[in-house]
Amino acid sequence: MLTVGLTGGIGSGKSTVSALLASHGAVIIDYDQLARDVVEPGSPALAAIAERFGPGVIAADGTLDRPALGAVVFADAAARKDLEGITHPAIRDLAVQRQVAAGDDAIVIHDNPLLVEMGAAAYCEVVIVVDVPVEVQVERLMSTRGMTEDEALARIATQASREVRTGAADLVIDNTGPIDELESIVGGVWDELVLRAAASDGAGRDGTTN
Questions:
Q1: Cα four-point dihedral sign 11, 13, 16, 18
Q2: From the CA atom positions of the chain, what is the Rg in Å?
Q3: Alpha helix segments (H runs only) across 54-120
């Protein structure tokens, strides 16, 4: 098994890269989906969120009211840290379960927008960062998600800086070009991952065993 971390700032096109890697045969562990799974009704994480942030973040049907919670945590760094303290351990545990289920011969991609922020890069044998300039992120968020420039910049500011992300990378994918160029780049990255998988001993970047 080869354990790969895939990350990139919001609007970088990381999800497109993830889908392309999946088409080559990678097993994708989608952390956005994990984040939804760990706060399903009845989960310990949802109960802890309700206790910390109050009943206003729980919808009438018992599910997490994400817009209500987002309005709190994106405006308050301390509140966001509290939320991460609840959800990140639960997400890590579920990710381990999904990786074990992938099988010993898999190339497992941990598709995680907060790979660096969670300290999870150290547990990956290879870290891939999808990179674009901040102005490209802003343009994409405005055109595809309907954000204002200020909203886009605020969301970008909640994540690790471009410099910090690329500093943690083994491989950087420049996604400023057209899709056919990206497909070619990802194909080359996949070939590199296959080679690394053949030589892998299963140890993370910090020497831990996955």
A1: negative
A2: 18
A3: 66-73, 77-102
